[in-house]
From TrEMBL:
Gene3D superfamilies: 3.30.420.40, 3.40.367.20. Residues 1-26 are annotated as: Disordered. It comes from the Eukaryota. Pathway: Carbohydrate metabolism; hexose metabolism; Carbohydrate degradation; glycolysis; D-glyceraldehyde 3-phosphate and glycerone phosphate from D-glucose: step 1/4. It is a peripheral membrane protein. It comes from Monodon monoceros (Narwhal). Belongs to the hexokinase family. The lineage of its organism: Eukaryota, Metazoa, Chordata, Craniata, Vertebrata. It is found in: Mitochondrion outer membrane. This is Hexokinase-3. The keyword Repeat applies. GO terms for cellular component: cytosol; mitochondrial outer membrane.
Amino acid sequence: MDSIGSLGLQQREGAPSCPQEGLPCPSNSSELVQECLQQFKVTGAQLRQIQTSLLDSMEQALKGQASPAPAVRMLPTYVGSTPHGTEQGDFVVLELGATGASLRVLWVTLMGIEGHKMEPRSQEFVIPQEVMLGPGQQLFDFAARCLSEFLDALPVGNQGLQLGFSFSFPCHQTGLDKSTLISWTKGFRCSGVEGQDVVQLLRDAIQRQGTYSIDVVAVVNDTVGTMMGCEPGLGPCEVGLVVDTGTNACYMEEARHVAVLDEDRGRVCISVEWGSFSDDGALGPVLTIFDHTLDHESLNRGAQRFEKMIGGLYLGELVRLVLAHLARCGVLFGGYTSPALLRQGGILLEHVAEMEDPSAGAARVHAILQDLGLNPRASDAEFVQHVCAAVCTRAAQLCAAALAAVLSRLQHSREQQTLQIAVATGGRVFERHPRFLSILQETVMLLAPECDVSFIPSVDGGGQGVAMVTAVAARLAAHRCLLEETLAPFRLTREQLAAVQAQMREAMAKGLQGEASSLRMLPTYVRDTPDGSERGDFLALDLGGTNFRVLLVRVATGGVQITSQIYSIPECVAQGSGQQLFDHIVDCIVDFQEKQGLSGQSLPLGFTFSFPCTQLGLDQGILLNWTKGFNASDCEGQDVVCLLREAIGRRQAVELNVVAIVNDTVGTMMSCGYEDPHCEVGLIVGTGTNACYMEELRNVASVDGDSGHMCINMEWGAFGDDGSLSMLSTRFDASVDQASINPGKQRFEKMISGMYLGEIVRHTLLHLTSLGVLFRGQQTQRLQTRDIFKTKFLSEIESDSLALRQVRAILEDLGLSLTSDDALMVLEVCQAVSQRAAQLCGAGVAAVVEKIRENRGLEELTVSVGVDGTLYKLHPHFSSLVAATVRELAPRCVVTFLQSEDGSGKGAALVTAVACRLAQMTCV
Ligand code: BG6
Ligand code: GLC
Ligand code: GLC
């Protein structure tokens, strides 16, 4: 084509021809224009079909349908609530991707008082084309430079600035400050960014720039900024609609409908990413030849087909293609084109908006066309206006169909027949194009008549909203710091655990030697584990754990058979008088005997008594002090077997033959030892915690004899009562200790066992609430109630399969209303407390097995540990954490943990059986 004259007009080639395939070229101009524009007409039925089809895609995506992939993505944004209006502070906002080739930086001050506003400062920077299409690093470096330049002009320091990043492209968000770009849209195509966390890329660039210390606190889509910045009217604004370079919407969805989230309460903001909607069935009939050409010539061919009919980047382009076609057909501009008309991007949204404006008048249209290098004739202005109107009307109608789909979705998810809702609108198409909103409104009314929609223009192009999200994110980040600080003392290093192990070893040695030590290392007079030859029927009592039990244990050739019954010990009895307690025990035995038809028989009885006792023989145990929840008077310093016999005496009707008194650790070891001869350690992690093990008799100063073994009840719950654990003790341990019935006692037990972990968590939660980190800083009476937070809650909360839903259910049962962030933090508190407990317990076991190995002078020891206790058995991770710690701290011991299935009553019966066998042998 030849250029003519200074206008740069290009002459048409010969007679009118139709470059756009399939379009005839009638000679009548008006007809041709009409025919061309007819293609842009969308019927009500087509709009309804788009609405239905988009709604289907949205619902499939929410359900997590993988195949076929739904036409829209429905991306969760980590924004869980609309603003409270109380957010405050100064924030830097960086906007990238909403408005074509420009980047905006804002300084936003939130006043913290609803309705009070301060105008933000802002600056726009044009992104050079080569940056939009170059390496990703170059784009982010450019952004960091713009930030610096903007901040240089402000009276702000260079430290501690908090930034909200509005990044308007489809992203998979995994946190408020973590977002992976799925694919570029609109005019961007920088290399090395897709699949990367854009927040990290920005942080890296800011660091490379080096001038300002800026914390990138939150990343949001422009639709979210638009929604969040909306001044709340009568109700909150729960939809954000953007028609700028591209188009998209976000809305507040019920979290339980979003399959990818593990949340069943509350709402979450979903970015629909409707620009990618391209259902062939629905869109096919409305796509024109110009849409196909536009797509073909775009950077992202085949993608974002819906956006390409609505977004501002494309409206000018569609008009250009139509005008070029009509010019080539000889209908417009005397058949002449111009370089601007033939160049991609030659006509911009601004041109279209202005030309379409009915008030513009023919002269203005003329002037614009001339600016585009065209030489319009008198009739051209009107035709051009028709073209602009047709393209824009279609865009507004399609956008309305999509918005109607979102409104239908809201109606479905909220199960409401009618819906009153505010939609925040943002983007240059709304700002510059006067008719767009009115067509949109009209069409929405037709497509969703049951919805009463008010449209509210966004504040500062969404900058305010981004600042709101940033304020929330900054508050959450500050809370996280406080949480980390609070939990730090619970997190023990390997060195700290090794020190606990070493101290335990030292205390064991001292205790065995009879020197001052917090470990009493009590001889039990159990010299061997069972050999399998034991036989007979025995009664057993089991006192000191969660349940008090009476058992009938039949040891026969075929194995051990147990019948048992649980009786309650009311707190008033456990903490009443000794006589009352032992009378109650005997009452329970009598009841059991009657029910089992054993009345009148005097079976040998083994008594599992899970408290520290000095033993001088198997059937003698002087209670040193009560532990756990017991505190019956006049028992400490007394022989428990005597107390039981006296109670039997008071209840003249029964005769009982008490043969042995056994600690639960010993019962457990014996019970497991019946199955596995390697079982030489007994461990309890239940209401209390303790361990016993087989020691060389020669090491036990208080018992005569140099050969053979004796089981030692370590009473490790008291470890640290001499102050040696104070380095590890947190303020919460101190509170739990102070509030207990035995302050200063059982310090190791109070960090590990079931009676106390719930309390440690409760005290920690109280502290975090007082810092404002949890429950919005609201203290409740319930949480201040002692023992309200049971240790079994830790097990339930930490069980992976139930996760955060469980936390919510438990805490709400306690009358605490919590957000999903609260739920996560409570889970972390539970994890920190139970992890420390398991690790300390592991350090104790490591000390014990290492002692056994060294006693025997072995390079490697293979040993089994019999374990019982509700915490160990019910907690989902406790046992594996104990085992891992033992592997770490006692690498030369191969330790197998055996869970006792029958409780320590069976072990007590076995100890009794052995004693009876030995007694018979001596009689013979
Ligand atoms: C049981 C024993 O199996 O474990 C009790 O029979 C022991 O004697 C108990 O005290 C420890 O667990 P908990 O959780 O009941 O204290
Ligand atoms: C594009 C982006 C989307 C954005 C929209 C409006 O569709 O993919 O994330 O919200 O443009 O800017
Ligand atoms: C307490 C008791 C101890 C018992 C342990 C486990 O620590 O003092 O004897 O073994 O609890 O029940």
